[in-house]
Structures are given as C-alpha cells and as structure tokens.
Design goal:
The complex is a heterodimer of chains A (116) and B (114). Chain A is mostly beta strands and 116 residues long. Chain A has no helices and eleven strands. By secondary structure, chain B is an all-beta fold. Classes of the chains: A mainly beta (116), B mainly beta (114).
C-alpha cells in the first residue's frame, strides 16, 4: 500500500492567516483526496485532486477558501485561507491505491489545525 | 441515496473479549465495497479491512473479520481478543464502482478496559 506523509502534523494559527498543508506519496497515484474532520465528526470530502487538472470541489467548499495544487503524481498541497476558528479540524489527504482489496483509500497521518 | 449507519456512538469492552461494531448501509449500486478504518487519538486514519459486494466469503485480516450479511445490508466488524491498543474511533465506509467517493458512517468510539 502507498505510504503517505503530511506536513505539518499540527499547527496553531491566528485567525485571518493561511496555512498550506503538504501531502507526499511514495508512489505515483492518479487520484488524491483532501478531507476535513471537524471535532467529534466523521470525514467530509473537500476536493479531489488529479494531476494536470483543476481540483474538483464538493458542495460547500470553494477554491478561494481551499486552493489545491497537484504539480505531479506524488505530491499535493491544500491551503486553508483566511482562517477562522471554525476551520479548526484535522485535515487528511488520501490516495486511491489498487491492491488485493481493490481500490482502497489510504490516508496520511493528518494535520491537526487549531485556529485561535 | 447511499448511506452508512453506525448505531453505536460508544462502546466499553473488557480486554481480551471479542467486540462487534455495527455497520449498516444503503445503496442501489450493484457493485460496491465496504471498508473499516481505525482512528486512534493521534488522528491518523488506518485502513483495517475490505469486503467487496461480490465476495463469497467474509473478509478476515488477523484479529479483524467482517461479518457481511448482504441481504440485511450489514457489514459488522468483529475484533477478536481485544487489546488496550484497540481503543480508538472506528469508521465504516462504502465505495462503489460508479463513484470513487467514500460514504462515511458517524463512527464508534471503542474503549477497551483493562
């Protein structure tokens, strides 16, 4: 299975600032996903990032607030812009990897963001 | 519409006992997959086990097994001989071949007591 790393692992930020989260995969993958997990909640998909094309955002998420880059098949970034306390969440990237279990999503360790 | 339901918000289990975490689903897609993930307090999401809708046998992976009852649309996770390190949130998720998106349940918080 793919091995995924994320940076930073956690951060505390002031409102109005922006944070860029990096996601690195140890193999080339077509589809990368960005999720948000608010405190005590399940995962919500923010967007899907395919290399060479614009990210596809889910309802309720917009590019101005969560710009995403996908410069190659092993790397992606998510920026949380103009942060407010409501953005305090765990942000997770995942990749779809075809293995003996079919198309399984594997996740990075997550970025725990606190906005003051 | 696709939906995943986990009816147990929290469970306490004695160490070494077996645990069953419930998951029911709803989909009209004939081909789908069911996943279980573990999320410790560290926040990472760890893939545990997968069951395909056409798989004839229940999936097993070490101490994890999936009790798949297709007619009842349930895919319960069974953890045998629970350990203190099993304490975590557990999420059931569903994916279909017509849609790469995973549909997530609300999760079950499992606490193993010594």
């Amino acid at each position: 299975s793919a091995v995924i790393s994320q940076k930073p692992s956690r951060d505390i930020c002031q409102r109005g600032t922006s944070l860029t989260i990096q996601c690195q995969v140890d193999s080339q993958v077509t589809m990368m996903f960005w999720y948000r997990q608010q405190p005590g909640q399940s995962l919500t998909l923010i967007a899907t990032a395919n290399q060479g094309s614009e990210a596809t955002y889910e309802s309720g998420f917009v590019i101005d607030k969560f710009p995403i880059s996908r410069p190659n098949l092993t790397f992606s970034t998510l920026t949380v812009s103009n942060m407010s306390p409501e953005d305090s969440s765990i942000y997770l990237c995942s990749v779809e990897d075809r293995d003996r279990d079919g198309d399984t999503q594997y996740f990075g360790p997550g970025t725990r963001l606190t906005v003051l | 519409a696709q939906k995943i339901t986990q009816t147990q918000p929290g469970m306490f289990v004695q160490e070494k006992e077996a645990v069953t975490l419930d998951c029911t689903y709803d989909t009209s897609d004939p081909s789908y997959g069911l996943f279980w993930y573990k999320q410790p307090s560290s926040g990472e999401m760890i893939f545990l086990i997968y069951q395909g809708s056409y798989d004839q046998q229940n999936a097993t992976e070490g101490r994890y097994s999936l009790n798949f009852q297709k007619a009842r649309k349930s895919a319960n996770l069974v953890i045998s001989a629970s350990q203190l390190g099993d304490s975590a949130m557990y999420f059931c998720a569903m994916g279909s071949h017509s849609n790469y998106q995973l549909i997530w349940g609300a999760g079950t918080k499992l606490i193993i007591k010594p």
